[in-house]
Specification:
single chain; 159 residues; mainly alpha; 7 helices; 0% strand; disordered C terminus
Length: 159
């Protein structure tokens, strides 16, 4: 692996490991959910995404768990490009943020600020930020230390 590839991997490592471990833990905890837990998870998701009600609650929970495992694998397996891992994380977090935005009681009235009940889903905005950051790094092909060169803005800022 070339020196710049090692720098990129090292820069992404904290994000990918922490978020990947979080997703893997969440997936494993849902994998063998009992019927009551599966029904509760499905009902919560169906409030925003009614089409999910067509699935059996146990099947829904297994699909959700599998989706989380896929995201975890994309983040934890270093040969998967940042763009792919970031896209998987971004799509998943957009889904959970959709639930946050559309479920009554998750946000304070007339605000994006979470209620106590909404804090668990509101934190997914961080996951969205991590996903977008990984996509941006993968797309731009950033391969070195951050630069302070401001290009055309430099002249304007010197004035």
């Amino acid at each position: 692996m070339a020196g710049s590839a090692w720098r990129v991997a090292a820069r992404q490592l904290p994000l990918r490991l922490t978020v990947g471990a979080f997703f893997l833990n969440s997936a494993l905890s849902k994998r063998d959910a009992d019927q009551a837990t599966a029904q509760r998870l499905q009902q919560f998701a169906c409030a925003t995404y009614p089409f999910l009600g067509k699935l059996d609650a146990q099947k829904f929970t297994r699909v959700l768990s599998t989706g989380e495992m896929v995201v975890a694998a994309a983040l934890l397996v270093p040969v998967i490009p940042a763009t792919v891992a970031g896209a998987a994380l971004t799509v998943f977090s957009c889904g959970t943020l959709g639930i946050y935005l559309h479920t009554p009681g998750m946000r304070q009235e007339g605000s994006l600020r979470p209620t106590e009940q909404g804090t668990g889903l509101a934190k997914d905005v961080w996951l969205l930020g991590v996903g977008i950051s990984l996509i941006a790094e993968g797309v731009t092909g950033h391969r070195g230390p951050a630069t302070t060169d401001l290009g055309p803005w430099h002249r304007m800022l010197r004035r």
